[in-house]
């Protein structure tokens, strides 16, 4: 009778253990099979799955290896740092033409020459510009450098310039936009563009 009681207790304990385990949400997986984090079945006993596991590890290591070093592209020089004649002919003159055309003006002639500065007669780099039925101006650079001393002279059509004025003497940093805006400002100041 005692043996029957012990047997009943053992059976009851085993039943309660299995109910507790099933209530806790455990799922028993056969020892021969496991599922990896990607949902792929892995068999411990299979040598192929070990190879697959190794190759996955190798792939991860390849992903963590440093990327190939790609050289940074060289930063292009600002246009103001380009050679003087390139800056004038490729950037300043086309930008001046665009600005004046947007104001409804027609350029008859514009060019850069190493010639005599109007009025003073000393040799320097001069941009001479003739605007049809409006005016002419001469923007002079003392040296082949946009930061060198500059002057501007203006005249009405078919007249010679009578005044030479310093141009951008207080500016530390000369830019394309600054040159264009000050040329327009000088032309407006003389009421040559019809705009105040």
Question: What features would you describe in this structure?
Answer:
β4 and β5 (135-141) form a beta hairpin. The protein is α+β, with helices and mostly antiparallel strands and 196 residues long. The protein folds into two domains: 30-70, no CATH class; 81-189. Helix content is 37%, strand content 21%.
Strands, helices and their partners?
Blueprint: H1 2-23, E1 33-35, E2 41-43, H2 47-64, H3 84-102, E3 107-116, E4 123-131, E5 135-141, E6 150-155, E7 164-166, H4 176-189
Antiparallel strand pairs: 1-2, 3-4, 4-5, 5-6, 6-7
Helix pairs in contact: 3-4
Brief write-up:
The chain has 196 residues and is an alpha+beta fold.
List keywords for this structure.
37% helix, 4 helices, alpha+beta, five-stranded antiparallel sheet, 196 residues
Order of helices and strands: HEEHHEEEEEH
Work out the number of β strands: 7
- Structural Rg: 43 Å
Tell me the structural class: alpha+beta
Task: Give me the side-by-side strand order of the main sheet.
Answer: 3-4-5-6-7
The share of residues in extended strands comes to 15-25%
Kindly state the mean pLDDT as a whole number?
76
Sheet of most strands: 5 strands, antiparallel
Whole-Å distance between the termini? 122 Å
What is the share of helical residues?
25-40%
Q: How many domains comprise the coordinates?
A: 2
The best one-word shape is globular
Number of helices: 4
Low-confidence stretches: 1-5, 18-26, 43-47, 53-57
